[in-house]
Amino acid sequence: MFDNLSDRLNATFKKLKGRGTLSEKAIDEGLKQVRMALLEADVNYRVAKKVISDIHRRALGQEVMESLTPGQQVIKIVYDEFSTMMGSAHEGLNLGNRVPETVMLVGLQGAGKTTTAGKLALYLKKQGKRPFLVPVDLHRPAAIDQLKKLGKQLGIPVFDSTQEMKLGDICRAAEKMAGQEGFDTLLVDTAGRLHVDDGLMAELVELKKMLNPVETLLVADAMTGQDAVNIAGAFDKAVDLTGVILTKMDGDARGGAALSIKAVTGKPLKFIGVGEKSTGLEPFHPERMASRILGMGDTLSLIEKAQESVDLKKAEALEKKLKKNQFTLEDFRDQMASVRSMGSIKDLMGLIPGVNKKMISGLNIDEREFVRIEAIINSMTPEERRSHAIIKGSRKKRIAKGSGSTVQDVNKLLKSYTQTMKMVKKFNKGGMRSLKGMLPF
Ligand code: GDP
C-alpha cells in the first residue's frame, strides 16, 4: 500500500535533502512533484490542493528558511500535514458503559462488512470484551450463513437470525439475549446493495433508530479509490457515520481513499483491513501512516505487533537469560516461533524504517527455512540444546538425519545462532548505545 506514492515522494525529497539553502523556486518545484504524486495516488483534488498550499505556506516560513537543514524541515512539514490530513491521532471505538453497546456496520455489498464484523469481534475479544455478532441482512440468507460460519470458526457467538424474522424482533431479541448472557458489544452486520439506493438507506435509518448504536461505521473498499470517499458521503448523509473502516488495503489500492476520506467527509478512518484472514485488521494511526508513506517506517506498529504476540512472563525470563548470556538453542527456537506468530516476515519487514517493497521483493525469504530450523533443533537432545559446543561430527550427522536435513544445514543454523549470541553479548556490554544506527531516530 502506498508504494508508488512513497517512491515518488522519496525521489523528490532526495533532491531537497542535503542542500544548505533552499530557494523558493526549489520548494515550488518540489511541491509540484508532491502534488502530482498525491493526485496519482488518487487523492481527492481539493484535498491535495489544500494540503500543498498548507505545506507551501509553512515551507516559506522561518522554520525552514533559517534552518541549517531546510530539506529535512520541509519533509517534517510534509509529514505533519499528511498526518493532519488523515486525522492527526488514532480514533478507536468509542464504546460507552451501556450493556450492551451496539456497533452498526454499514456499506455496499462486497465491501467486506461480514469479514470486518468477524475481525472486529476478534479484536474486541482480545481486549477482554464479550462481543455478540448479529446478522440482519434478511435479503440474502447467504450473508447470514456466512456470519454464522465465521462466528463458529472464531468461537464468537452469533445471534440465530432467520430470513422469516422481522428486523425489530431480531434487534430486541439480540439485545435481550446479550443482557442474559453477559455479551457487552453487539456487532450488527447490516444488509448491503451493489449501489447506494434509497431502499437500503431507508432500512438503515430505521435500523439505526431501533438500535441506537454508539458507533455507526462504514465499511468501504479501498480499491475503489475516490468512489469510497463518495460512498462515505452518501452514507454519512443518511445515517450520520461515526467513522470509516477501509478494507483491502493489502491489495493494489493506491491509498487515495485513506488519505482523503477524513478531509472530505470529516469522519475519521478508524481501522484498515489488510487481509482476508480474521487477524487482518489494524487500528489506523494517521501519524504512523504518514511515517510509512514518507519511507520512515512504522516502528510503533511493529512494536505493538510484537507485544501482542509476546508472553510477558516468558519475555522477562528471556531478558534475564540474555543478560546472563544464557540464551540457548531452545530459547532461539521459541523466539523464532513467537516472531513467526506475528505474521509473514516480509510483511513485518515492510514496517521497518527505510525498507521499501522493492527491497523486500528482492529478498529471498523462504518461510519454510524456519520450519527446517525448528525441525533441526527438535532433533537435538536437551543437553545439545543447552550446550551447543558439544555438537560435533557424529552428533551433527545424527541431528541432520533425524530432521531430514543435511550436515550443512545444521552448520548453518549453529553459525547463525552463534552470531546472534555475539550480538547479544555486544549489546549486554554496550547497552542501547551499541544499537545506535539501527534505530530510525
Ligand atoms: P460484504 O458483502 O460487505 O459482507 O463483504 P464480505 O465480507 O463478504 O467480503 C467480500 C470479499 O472481500 C471477500 O472475498 C473477503 O474475503 C474480501 N475481503 C474483505 N476484507 C478484506 C481485506 O481487508 N483484504 C482482502 N484482501 N480481502 C478482503
TrEMBL record:
It is found in: Cytoplasm. Its EC number is 3.6.5.4. It holds the Pfam family SRP_SPB. Keywords: Coiled coil, Cytoplasm, GTP-binding, Hydrolase, Nucleotide-binding, Ribonucleoprotein, RNA-binding, Signal recognition particle. Residues 268-281 form the SRP54-type proteins GTP-binding domain. GO terms for molecular function: 7S RNA binding; GTP binding; GTPase activity. The keyword Repressor does not apply. GTP binds at residues 107-114, 189-193, 247-250. Belongs to the GTP-binding SRP family. SRP54 subfamily. Part of the signal recognition particle protein translocation system, which is composed of SRP and FtsY. This is Signal recognition particle protein. It comes from Desulforapulum autotrophicum (strain ATCC 43914 / DSM 3382 / VKM B-1955 / HRM2) (Desulfobacterium autotrophicum). The gene is ffh.
